[in-house]
Write a structure and sequence with these properties.
With 202 residues, the protein is mainly alpha-helical. The protein is 63% helix and 0% strand.
């Protein structure tokens, strides 16, 4: 999949260069600028139906869910991390089993996380739980999705001791700082690129 994505990016760059030459020659185009489709190739959207459904159930911004998926797995539903996290939202089987118990999913098996709909449902449930735990603070919830809630609670306390909210710059782990930066930036991009496909249902 990544090889195909790389090939698609190369083709897009070549096409963009070609469009530039044609524009210089005076050709008139009404299509979307090349930068628009380059961005869509760099930040693809798949399983948008599952994203919208899970986001609606958990009262989440669908673009935030898409941004977490993009950052966690690059929309590779077969991704498995070195720590054993699985699928689109890189959900740990132990976390999913706990969610299953909380939500009545008594027949849950770890292999279920390979199903994109199940993975997005469980990952969105966990993201909602983190948002609730941190009073709706998206930055804190996203940081906790990567580094764990206990660590983020400490960082919030440290920030509060200085009389302010947690900022990305306050996160002491470089990996988590970069993760938060990527997710929040990609949320903005997914809103801009896929507004119609990710419109939050009322």
């Amino acid at each position: 999949m990544r090889r195909l994505l790389l090939l698609a990016v190369v083709v897009a760059v070549a096409a963009a260069a070609g469009l530039g030459v044609l524009r210089c020659a005076g050709a008139s185009f009404t299509a979307e600028p090349a930068a628009g489709w380059y961005s869509r190739l760099a930040y693809p959207l798949e399983h948008d139906g599952a994203i919208r459904t899970a986001a609606r159930r958990q009262h989440l911004d669908p673009a935030l869910v898409a941004a977490v998926i993009s950052t966690e797995s690059g929309f590779d539903e077969r991704a498995v991390s070195s720590s054993g996290a699985v699928g689109l939202m890189q959900v740990l089987p132990a976390t999913a089993a706990q969610i299953a118990r909380e939500t009545g999913g008594v027949a849950f098996e770890a292999a279920d996380l390979e199903d994109p709909r199940v993975n997005v449902r469980y990952g969105s449930y966990y993201l909602r739980r983190l948002l609730d735990e941190f009073g709706g603070d998206t930055l804190a919830a996203v940081a906790a999705y990567n580094a764990g809630a206990a660590r983020v609670a400490v960082w919030l306390d440290d920030a509060a001791a200085d009389g302010r909210r947690l900022r990305t710059a306050d996160i002491p782990f470089p990996e988590t700082r970069e993760y938060v930066r990527r997710v929040l930036e990609r949320r903005r991009l997914y809103r801009e690129l896929y507004g119609d496909r990710l419109r939050r249902a009322s």
